[in-house]
Amino acid sequence: MAKIAFILLCHKDPDAIIKQAESLTAAGDCMAIHFDANANPKDYARIQAALGDNPNVVFAKKRVKCGWGEWSLVEATLRAVEAAVEGFPRATHFYMLSGDCMAIKSAEYAHDLLDADDVDYIECFDFFKSNWIKTGMKGDRLIYRHFFNERKHKALFYGAYNLQKKLGWERPIPDDIQVMIGSQWWCLRRRTIEWVLEFTKSRPDVMRFFRTTWIPDETFFQTAVRHLVPEEEIRTRTLTFLMFSDYGMPVTFYNDHYDLLLSQDFLFARKISPEAHELKARLGALYAQEGVTFEISNEGRSLYKFLTGRGRYGRRFAPRFWETESSLGRERELLVVACKKWHVAKRLVEKVRQVTNLPSIDYLFDEEDTPLPDLGGIQTTLGKRTRHRRALMRMLFDYYDTNRLLICLDPSNIDLMHDFYADRSTTRLLEIECDFTDDYLIGHAKRVGLAAERTPDETINRLLPTIRYDVLFESERLRDANFPDYHRIREWASVDENAAPLAKFLDLPPDKARDVAATDHLFAD
Predict the structure, then answer these.
(1) Distance between CA 386 and CA 378 in Å, rounded?
(2) Is the pLDDT of residue 432 over 80?
(3) E-strand stretches of 293-347
(4) Cα 7 from Cα 344, distance rounded (Å)
């Protein structure tokens, strides 16, 4: 009879991880956990304390600092796999999971399915011939070396990439390897796992190659399995049900999707919303149940496609079943810096990045050329960003894999601020109050089209009082809105005076807040 060793990669939400492990091991299966070394050590200690006495749970002996798109995710997986192979000699199958996955079938159903066919379940599509990659970089993922994290060090990532392209520093793919690509959510037999571990030791050339590819968790195991296992013993599919939105982001499931999920021809599903407490409770109890009959209709993806392409009269899209609400997420926190002098806000935000490593984006609703990741087109114009502002912000939270995000807004965007404050998420606002010289206001008038280079001085002088009033009015309007969690720093205040509101806004200790407040040339024009 099949016995599954779940390989769990996770980095947050220790309570959910503990519940997930207890639910899956209660049915007789087992789990190896790798908890990201970047994550909170207290969270890891809680998980170890809760699960340390569970004989069906082991932990990776060495934890890795993981980054999206890096080899570190493959290395973390291998560490957890090694712990599972050693700790669970009776495990017949090894199933890759994340903290966002939950079972949508019972253990009884899962074991019967795996016993019925002696095969591996892993997507293995030809990297170059298939259309698996829909947008963005394709062959360049492999033929150039990627040393930096694309999300954390974007400038270094693309700088190194473009330099290699310019100099023609392409590299060959190992001769006997056909690179495959597919979902990282696989289920492999014990024999296959042992072959893969031996492959990592016997082929250092292949390991060196994949270490500097981009997003290798979508290629390494897929390539190794296809290289080692006869094609007839591979089912090119995943047993984890997941869907992607129009913009290439994972669809999230909520409380009212229980019946839909159970009817799909898969064993697990991701992503389950952190706020879907009822769904989590029902799915958590499902895995250990016996005698449950599942009516498989498998209509999830076709229904998704239908609802994406159909709209009500007068609307482009109908309400989508996978987006039951347009909230950014109750657990998320949006930090907004409002300042009329954009260069001042950008200096402050850059300092915040250095001190806190908080994902931050400059004036994305004000500047067309603000650097943004490729989100499937929703980010391409200011009009799209504003129309789909909540969808855009949700995608950015997901892209940076964070629950805290900082953005800059022009004070004139008070409607956007009202909209974000109306959301279930937490919103904080920091206004930077500046002095405005006549020269600055004249430059501002030219930037926004109120004046041109050849506008007579007499006309500009008549405009100045109106422009100054308009700038002051925007600031007054922010204060009159009575936004909760509103904070303000001033150009004419001392470093210590500005440090106090910064500490509250950023939730920083006083010394770090003072470091931010003391940013060199913060208010210089």
Answers:
(1) 10
(2) yes
(3) 333-338
(4) 47
